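Researcher: We're teaching a course module on how sequence relates to structure. For the next exercise, students receive a sequence and then see the predicted structure as tokens, so they can try to spot secondary structure elements on their own. Here is the exercise chain.
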Amino acid sequence: MQNYFETAETMDLAQDMLGHTFTYNSDQGTFSGLIVETEAYLGPIDMAAHSYNGRHTPANDPLYQAGGTIYIYSIHSWLDMDISIQKAGTPNGILIRALQPIDGLEQMELNRNRTGFEVTNGPAKWMAAFGIKDKKLSGTKLNENNFIFSAKKVQTPKNILATPRIGVKNKEPWTSKNMRFIVEGNPYVSKLPKRDMNLETYGWL
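Model: And here is the predicted structure for the students to work with:
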């Protein structure tokens, strides 16, 4: 089977991933959600990427592995997750920023001590909701162990919006590039104003 994460340009895959499901089979049970927000990172040329200028450390090594490798890292004591994109040696990544819950919502709410859209509307939030508390699974492959990415879209976005990435400061021209992709109107998108939420269809066709 052809590796999905090596089949297209990173920016295109970041958009195509919207509407696929992401599943984690954990000790607490199965957690899953629809991907509703992503950010693309273009490796050595991208000043916001962990592999900018060819930086290669034991921690970010998963980015250098085959497409579909999990990369877990900490930002201000929170954990985020990228998926490596492109063939081994080309350290591109896509950050999964937000998920719309499907399975395991009750346990997610307990893990987050939150309810409603706040449970998974951000990269560190959904990781906490899924009960991921460390980097032990960094470097593992999607669809081989604990993490499953659906082969096909489960839902199709009615419209995809491209915006600048969040939290990328003082790195022009990369700060302003539209490399964040969201399902327009989905209430689980991070930092989405209530006025922009579509509470009827959640932005799906």
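Model: If you want an answer key for the exercise: The helical segments are 10-16, 105-112, 123-129. The longest helix spans residues 105-112.
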